[in-house]
Recover the amino acids of this structure.
């Protein structure tokens, strides 16, 4: 079966344009991922021309946020789409691609968006089931918060929440985990997905100053909201913080 997607690259001094022409399909998605990732890693600032692109299935357009996440996300990796027709634009919207990858009408508008932080940014880090995982999680949170200009006080609480949630994955779920940070204009969300499907109990009253056993009680005390999402392969425990709680 012939791959009917054409990929062309045009490099400028401080950004690159990736032009896609044809059909986004199961066979062509890996080519798009490879080309976009290579440009993001080398240039850091990439615009993707969708004006001559169509997609056979809705799910294929998720290649764009996926490759941005692999490249490290904003601001070190910046990706903007432009030129999508009404059908493709609706697909990008319905699949929530536009939450993390902006869409512009044309090339000049896309160039402007390169310098604007998206309203929704996200990073993740996979962590081994190891005693060093909480320290790695803290460093990951610190670096992401610095890149996103998160207030220092919120960053410190986020580091503490990540430490507790990742420690729970290591000590209680006995599982590797994926730590995800999501930042909007108003909130920072810390999520840890482990691979044990057992339900998480609500935290019982404890001494908040106790050296052990603080866990979810501390999370509930510090976060503005928290919860548990169950998945076929495990669960995600998340906590959200307001970036400007006194506004």
């Amino acid at each position: 079966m012939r791959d009917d997607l054409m990929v062309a690259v045009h490099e400028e001094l401080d950004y690159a344009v990736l032009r896609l022409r044809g059909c986004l399909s199961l066979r062509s998605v890996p080519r798009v991922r490879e080309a976009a990732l290579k440009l993001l890693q080398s240039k850091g600032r990439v615009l993707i021309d969708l004006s001559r692109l169509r997609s056979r299935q809705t799910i294929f357009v998720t290649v764009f946020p996926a490759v941005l996440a692999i490249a490290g996300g904003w601001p070190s990796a910046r990706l903007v789409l432009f030129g999508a027709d009404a059908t493709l634009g609706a697909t990008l919207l319905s699949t929530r691609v536009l939450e993390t990858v902006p869409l512009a009408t044309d090339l000049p508008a896309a160039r402007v968006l390169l310098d604007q932080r998206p309203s929704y940014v996200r990073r993740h880090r996979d962590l081994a089931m190891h005693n060093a995982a909480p320290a790695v999680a803290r460093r990951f949170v610190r670096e992401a918060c610095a890149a996103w200009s998160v207030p220092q006080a919120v960053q410190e609480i986020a580091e503490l929440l990540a430490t507790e949630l990742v420690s729970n994955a290591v000590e209680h779920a006995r599982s590797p985990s994926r730590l995800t940070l999501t930042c909007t204009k108003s909130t920072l969300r810390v999520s840890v997905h482990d691979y044990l499907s057992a339900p998480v109990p609500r935290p019982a009253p404890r001494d908040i100053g106790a050296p052990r056993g603080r866990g979810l009680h501390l999370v509930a005390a510090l976060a503005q909201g928290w919860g548990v999402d169950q998945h076929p392969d495990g669960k995600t425990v998340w906590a959200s913080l307001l970036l400007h709680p006194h506004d």
Notes: The chain has two domains: 6-113, 121-242.
